[in-house]
Amino acid sequence: MKSQPTSRADRRRFLTAALTAAAAAPLAARAAQAPASQGPPPATPPAGGPPPVSPVPTSRAWDAAEPRMYPDPDIVALDPAFRSYVVFNSLIKRLHFGTSWAEGPAWNGVGRYMVWSDIPANVQMRWIEDDNRVTTFRNPSNNSNGNTFDFEGRQLSCEHGGRRVVRYEPNGQVTVIADTFEGKRLNSPNDVVVHPDGSIWFTDPSYGIRGNYEGNKAAAETKEAVYRVDPKTAAIARVAMGDQNQPNGLCFSPDYKKLYVADGAIWVYDVDGATLKNGKQFVQPMVPGTQQRSGADGIRCDTDGNVWAGARPGGIMPANWVIVSPSLSSTRNSRSPVRSGSQSSSRTTGCVGPVPGDPARTVTARISSPSPSHA
Which residues contact 173 (CB under 8 A, 6 or more apart)? Predict the structure, then answer.
C-alpha cells in the first residue's frame, strides 16, 4: 500500500518530539541516580490560606567548588512587602568558621571591618572586607560580648569577665564607662548602643556570671536592667527594670525616638530625653511554619525602621533572621543553616552562633543588604 506524503508541519512536530525525548532521557537517568534532597519536604498549602513555611534550611556545601545558585532558597519573605529588601542575587555567605561561641558583631565603616566576640575563648575577632581575612583583634577581651562604635569611631564593648562596659580610646587606653550601680557591681553587661547626644545605653542580664564558661561565676548583686550613662556627668541611671527577666540586645529606631529591647520577645519604649516611657511588648518572634515561640537576641533597625532580629528557636533548630515592620504588619524570615545570635550594626546583616548539634563549633555569616543598617 502506498503511504501518503507527510506535510512539512508534521515532520517538524515529529522531529521536535524526538529531540525532546532524546534530551530528557539522560537527565531522567541522572535524577534517578542522584541522592535524595536534604532540604525541607514540600509543604501542603492549607485551605484558604498562604502555604506554610518550613523552618528547616536548605542543605548546602559551603566550600564546594560548584557555582552557587540564586535566589538563595533560605531568604524567605513571609509578606510581599519585604520583597523589596531582597537583592535577587544576594546569598548567605559564611565569613568564618571555628570560634567557640561568637557574639556581638559590629561594623567599622572607616576601617571596613567587622569585629565580634568569641566569649569563651576570651578574644575578639575581626573580618577584614578588602581581602576577606579573619584575624584575632583583641586578646584577652575579658570575655566581651556585645560591641558597637560610637559617633567618633571608638569601640565600646560589654565585658562578662570584668562585669563592665568599656571604651577603647585611639591611644590604646581603656576607659571604664560603667561597672557599678549604687555601689553594687553590675552583673554581666550584654549589649550597648550610643545615642547622638553622646549617652550610652546598655543591658545588664546575669548570663555571664552563672558559670565560668563565658565569664566568672558569681552572685548577682543587682537586678537585671537597662541603663543609661549620661554624656556630661557620666552618671549611671537605671531606665528599665521589670519588663524583661534578662534584657539582651537593644537598638534605637532611626529617629532615636524609640528604644527596642530583646528578651525573647522584643519590647519597645518611647525615648523621652534621659528616660523611657510607655514600655510594651512589640512582638513575640515565632519559629516559621510552627506555633513555637522563638527568642530574639541581637537586634538592629534599618533606615526604614524595620527591626532585624537574630532569633534562636533552640535545640538543633536553624536560625532565623526575623524582620518586623514598625507597624507590625509584616515580617520576613531568613532560614539560616546555622544558629544565630547577635545582629551586626552595619551595611550587612551579620549573624553568629553555635552550629546545630555541635555547640563547640561556630560560624559567622552575613546576608548582603540593599539598605544600610542603623547603628
Answer: none
Q: Which amino acid is at 306?
A: N
Cell numbers of 155, please? Answer: 569601640
pLDDT tens digits for range 60-71: 776 666 667 788
Q: Cell numbers at residue 109, please? A: 565603616
The architecture CATH gives domain 75-374: 6 Propeller (2.120)
How buried is residue 141: exposed, middle or buried, by Cβ count under 10 Å (0-12/13-18/19+)?
Answer: buried
| Cα distances (angstroms) measured from residue 134 to each of 59, 116, 129, 277 | 25, 11, 9, 42
pTM over 0.90: no
Which residues neighbour 30 within 8 Å (Cβ) at sequence distance 6 or greater? Answer: none
| Boundaries of every domain in the chain | 75-374
110-113 long-range Cβ contacts below 8 angstroms, 24+ apart: 110/153
Q: What is the pLDDT of residues 90-125, one digit of tens each?
A: 888 888 988 999 999 999 999 999 999 999 999 999
Interior CA angle at 306 toward 288 and 178, to 5°? 105
Residue 324: its pLDDT value, please?
65
Q: Which grid cell is 29?
A: 537517568
